[in-house]
């Protein structure tokens, strides 16, 4: 049972690893952006509530 590894095998593995890492990084970035949007929405709602309270 001879297992042989050639340069193409190594290159393929390196490329796949790079793609996986990139995908993980993109998912992390997407999550961070979603968090920021939710925080902005919350802040805007709080400001709107304060403005309404000051009118009454």
Describe this structure in words.
The protein has about 55 residues and is mostly helical. It has one domain. Helix content is about 90%, strand content about 0%. It is built from one helix and no strands. The radius of gyration is 24 Å and the shape is rod-shaped.
Characteristics:
56 residues; rod-shaped; 88% helix; 1 helix; mainly alpha
Low-confidence stretches: none
How many discrete structural domains?
1
Average pLDDT across residues?
88
Q: Structural class, from helix and strand content?
A: mainly alpha
Q: What is the rounded Rg? A: 24 Å
Order of helices and strands: H
Number of distinct helices:
1
Task: Report the biggest beta sheet as strand number plus sense, adding barrel if it closes.
Answer: none
Write the layout of secondary structure elements.
Elements lengths: L6 H49 L1
Summarize the structure.
With 56 residues, the chain is mostly helical.
